[in-house]
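Hey, resending since the last one bounced:
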Amino acid sequence: MFTINIMHAFKRPLSLILACMGFSAVIFFVFIIASTGSIYINALDRLDGTTLLMISVLLIKSVWVYRNLPDTISFGNSVVIVLAFIYTFESVYKFLFFDWVTNPADLRVLLLQIGTVSVIMLPIGYKSLQVTKTVVGFIILYVAFMFIWWIFGYPQIFEDVDNRVIFLGADRIHVSLNQVFIWNRVAKLWLFLAFIFSIRINNRK
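The structure tokens again:
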């Protein structure tokens, strides 16, 4: 049976490449942690390693779930899901900074990110994801955590005193950069779990 599975994998080169990329990235992340003690990857412009790990797991899960679909469709679905995850978080993150209000370049990037996320609503994405109560729960947690981050973490860490958005007494609650980082990554974790639990074959017509 194992030999048959191996042969089947080699008949699906695109999916095999994605799976290898996913597993390789996980190994690379573990190596970075072990060798540097930091989750930031300097070789990738200090990329947050947790993001790389989430992307890798999404790739592996997508390839596995769509293994019985044609190789090109499996490949396309997996790539679209990963891009949707990345740009969903990035577009919300950028939106909350509100730089796009005064900066046309930021507005252009934001619109491109939103456009990329909207691909998930096309027929391919419509049949590749399923929204369950669990998924909705994770989305609610994501929205709540990002909202709290915006109230307490963002104005104190990223804004000058004169430009802070004072809301619900946020200026009276001291937060450190490390606390803001952890809160932000937990928010991303909820979004990641929403995508993970939504990846499945959808038989809707």
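Helices lie at 2-10, 13-36, 49-65, 71-97, 104-118, 123-128, 133-158, 177-198.

Sorry for the duplicate.
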